[in-house]
Amino acid sequence: MEPPELDADALIANPDTKVVVCCGSGGVGKTTTAAALALRAAEVHGRQTVVLTIDPARRLAQSLGLAELDNTPRKVEKVTGGGLDAMMLDMKRTFDEVVLAHTTPEQAAEIFGNPFYQAMSGTFAGTQEYMAMEKLAQLRAKDQWDLIVVDTPPSRSALDFLDAPARLARFLDGRMLRILTASSRGGHSVFSLMTSSMSFFTRTINKILGGRMLTDIATFAASLDSTFGGFRTRAEATYRALQDPQTAFLVVAACEPDAIREAIYFTRRLTEERMPLAGLVLNRSHAVTAEGLSAERALGAAEGLEADGVDSATADTLRVHARLVTTVATETRIAARYTTACPSVPRTRVPAFPADVHDLDDLRAVGTAMTNT
What we know:
alpha/beta, 54% helix, elongated, ArsA/GET3_ATPase-like, P-loop_NTPase, ATP hydrolysis activity, ATP binding
């Protein structure tokens, strides 16, 4: 049974759709998908759109005609319609912004100068995913854009943001900070109060900071304890926002075994977490125009032409057709694995393009292909 078709145009044109999150394994065209959808939402549907990438790849900036992307939305020129901004998450700067928003300037300066904060804000597991959600919350709070399109990190870490907010909040909220403060001041080992994963983290930080680590933790905790204890509250609010019908998740994949396997994982995880899954974008798909000509017949005809000394260019064309037919058959079998595992998920196919995406025209072509299945 054929899966239902995903109407990507209807999704991004719908004024009730406020956030689109693109997730998938690495190398499947996720960044291009996010940029193409954002551009089409702006130009075709007149929506004020911003695209946020968490993947450090520079392809998005290049294709949008920008010299660079950073933590501040930058206007994309030569875009008609509603308008498009683009940005790339700067984890450290976003963490600093959170500190500034919840402390006085004096407290912020003390926190920024603390070695424990400097190490944690840039290296703590889950910080990137948590700060991505903080940045998403900041963009939503500005109420400046009709649509926010988020390009997530590659591989399964793309879904770490479902766990990271609560994980980081448990460490940073007021109660944990008070425990750290008390244990440090009382001379008790902070390691005995942490899980094995946190113990590994503290050992790592200890290598960086030396014997001052516990003192730095205590100072950090004292600075934040009374004014910066709302991580869990905001994390829970962000998680609920992801479950809101105004958010739509798109799983992006290619017709490759590993990518389809990851897509099935993403789909099941999103379903378990009750996240609003809109559908699957199957990139780099191939198709044949002469469907009645099998690979075997094409190869046989090519051999016959060459044996008769007829135009070799025709024989070469027949061989290309045979390879394409074989490729399509392979992709169909691979894609069927997803359909079997997730039969009710809408799907759209995007054809393989002869070259990589380099500019706005290329992105427009991708957007058109994605929405004209």
